[in-house]
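Entry 14. Ran structure prediction on the chain below.
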Amino acid sequence: MFNDIYSSILRELVNINPHSAVSEYCAARGSSGKVIEAVYDVNPTSNLGLKFGLKLTATKLCDLSRLMVTAKDVTACIKLIPNLAQWQKTPFYPFVTHQEGIISIGVTFPYGKKLSQYQRRFYVESLFVYIKNICQDFLEQPYAPSSISLDYDAPPYAQEYHQVFDCNMSFNCPLSVIRFKVDNPHNPFITSNAFLHNIYLKRAMEYAQKNNGVEHTTFHISNTLMQKHPKAFNSQSHADQLEISVRALQKRLHKTGSSYSDLLTLARMELTKIYLYQYKGGVEHSAQQLGFKTVTGFKQFFKSAFGMPLKEAKLNHG
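Output, structure tokens:
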């Protein structure tokens, strides 16, 4: 996820409040992911995610951040948000919905990475603070969050959330979602610049096309499942994209300890939370979006994946 700028900010924050295990990772020039992991190993109640998010000033960051704030307006910008995962290889996939004057961004983790609940909290906190600051600092008509749902327990520093976001907060929800009331979807950015925007867009697309080996295959498939469902719910379409046979695809995935079935199940689990909780599309609509021919098939999947009948799920919480 992190280029040198993000890594420098992260390490600066860690060095302000050094812990022995974290310092060892920094001294060894460990990856940013390892540094984050070390922080929460030492202190699971760390508010590092909030602090990191507050340090992310879009115009001083990477080309992707500049790409977002040079967009024409809100509508153009939110179309870019799902590409965060593809363009920066983030461990999360942000899913955007726009319904009846409400723009919501849900944070899913479809990539099979073994992240602790604390690491997930870090990514949710930093992303939500970053988005909130963009909406307040770079739009002609600033937006503030109307509500936030979080899929984890309230941390000991939960009062800081209210200071940072100043909106209704709900914990232990099915999905982490930040919502904004948007009266004008064409609210322009004060930093809009079509010329620079096109330059940053070209750079982002060029970076996304770089193949990072076998591990890239699993990431690419998961990303496609989230972006192009339900049409992408068959292994042949992914094999065709990679110009290999289905058998070769399965062998490539096997080298990573995964399978197409595993990736599909994980993507469907995350999309289930999106459509039932964030989008609130109802059972029948959700079943269709997830590629199930019948509602019964969807309910069977839900029970198998989440360990409870659909009717027992708390989908209206938050």
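The chain has a mean pLDDT of 88. Will compare against last week's run tomorrow.
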